Amino acid sequence: MTLSGNIKDLIIDSIGEGVFTVDKNFRINFFNKGAERLTGFKAEEVLGKFCKHIFQSDSCFDNCPISQVLRSGKNLYDFETYYSFINESKTPIRLNASVLYNEKNEPTGGIVSFRDVSELYALKRNLSDTTKYQGIIGRSKQMNEIFDLIEEISDSNAPVFIQGESGTGKELIANAIQKRSPRSSKPFIKINCSVFPENLLGSELFGHAKGAFTDAINNRAGRFEIADGGTIFLDEVAEMPLQMQVQLLRVLQEGTFERIGESITRKVDVRVIAATNVNISKALKDGSFREDLFYRLNVIPIEIPPLRERPEDIVPLVHHILQKFSITYQKSVPDVSDAVLDLLINYDWPGNIRELENVLEYAFVKTPSGEVIVESKLPPKIISPIKKKPAGTEKGTFYNEERLRLIHILEENRWNQTKSAEVLGIGRTTLWRKLKKYGLID
Amino acid sequence: MNEMLGNQLFMARRYSEALKNLEAALLHSPEQKPIKRKLIICYAQTGDIYKSLNLFYDLIKDDIQFIIDADPILDDCPCNEIIEQLEEQTDFNYDPFETKIYQGIIWLYCDAAKSLSCFQKAGELENSNEVIKNVIELIEKYTAT
Q1: Burial of A393 by CB count in 10 Å (0-12 exposed, 13-18 middle, 19+ buried)?
Q2: Most exposed of A77, A146, A272, A296 (fewest Cβ within 10 Å)?
Q3: CB pairs < 8 Å spanning A and B
Q4: Does A387 or A172 have the greater pLDDT score?
Q5: Looking at the domain B2-144, which fold is it?
């Protein structure tokens, strides 16, 4: 069955995208309702006119989409450019283009469908506006002090030692230091010292000679050699074996090292940024981290406060993360409810920003597009700790302890009530009653 | 494909690229006046003044009005832009005779009298050139009516 011209027109007019066609001279000969709605031009105003006079896009001169299709023979999808609409200067649009052919396979015109992506652009712009400093979000006094410090040391090549709990963004701080340093255009090598066994970490950092050990089938440069002239980021440096710490100290003091299995001494010029999430005082005290190395690394110390100590950063972080997910998931969840914000501010965030991001992603996925995140969409661990206590201190204490124990077991069993009841040694009905009592189910 | 791509490149004022496509299109459709009208400008703008002149003569013999009617908006004719530059220009890539031909060709897209004056000056510089004589004759005939 073929569709009549009228029906085709109705179909094309019913779609949200703007659609227009041009003849072989690039005069507009069709302009659908969507195009009228998006551009503000009426079809009768534009028909017969050159598309470049209507849309006044730079791409008309440099990179006409239809011309690209003519050259390549392939349709163009999701091409981004700017069109001038009737009331605005330039509107970012995303378009698809193809060429229309006659029965002799000669091009007779082109078809363009386009959509306004200014909202998406605004979202992206907003995302970068709220990005406080080099991609790091934070408006608390503590974070601003860190940003100021990074600026103050931007001309320096001195080692930096970053301390902070897991998930506080130590790597982002390292990135910012590198970007602002005189070595920003030079290599920036990152290595997590905790993921390599001792024998491999030596090879990773300093390289090895062919035959140095069983798998050393070729000579290999280590990360320090690769980073020569630039910067190396040693994450989780306190996890480094003691033997390796001695070698690292030598690189820091003299800039020299040998590849494993080789006697040639090599010299490098590398700035070291190190980071750890362990309690460094304890590590120094118990001897797992060398004091001399610590003092060499700790020339410029930076301590990133945990998220619980800077609740004022939660609001911008939440907005930033939601905007990021809006782009990733192509849906809009504009905000969280006030109640959710209270919960987020009062939560302890042991996993810091990484945990906040995970919690918001969980809630974001569960929230329908266009709605704000409400309490019921949050993971139970966020909701449970601050549910109202019942009256009476003693009863309240027991009440809370039992409630927390229940939550703990339920979480371990992924909220499977049958399994949780088994672990607790109670019946499923009893468990249900308790869940009801503690407000853990509706 | 050549004509449509040539049209777009002409619209983008990328004359040397447009020229290749429009030449090929003219081979395919030798009677197409819109292609000729664009090609004349492409040749003139890319330094091939004699090819431009020959095609110009060929077209005005057939339909001088077709060039005179070229409209900057309705036909996206670049004559206004070129003349604007031309009026400020003192140093041309052409010799004095060729410069007059160039100016004469371009002016016909806007003002037949000015075009005639340019061609007459060209004729004074090289009075044995038959094409110039014929062009002058055709424009004189047009302006007299």
Answers
A1: exposed
A2: A77
A3: 42
A4: A172
A5: 1.25.40
The whole-angstrom separation of Cα A313 and Cα A317 is 6
Which CATH architecture group holds A144-304? 3-Layer(aba) Sandwich (3.40)
Residue pLDDT, tens place only, A273-295: 999 999 999 999 999 999 999 99
Q: Which two tokens stand for residue A169?
A: 């963004």
C-alpha B71/C-alpha A377 separation (Å) is 64
**ipTM of the complex in this document:** 0.88
Rounded to two decimals, what is the model's pTM?
A: 0.52
Cβ of A64 and B7 within 8 Å?
A: no
Which pLDDT score, from 0 to 100, does residue A389 have? 40
Q: Which CATH number fits domain A5-116: 1.10.150.130, 3.30.450.20, 3.40.718.10, 3.40.50.300?
A: 3.30.450.20
Using a CB-CB cut-off of 8 Å, the residues of chain B touching A66 are: 8
Give the span between the Cα atoms of A190 and A375, in whole angstroms: 39
Interface of B with A (CB under 8 A): 1, 3-5, 7-9, 11-14, 34, 73, 76
Q: Of the ranges A51-60, A146-155, A164-173, B84-93, which one carries the lowest mean pLDDT score? A: B84-93
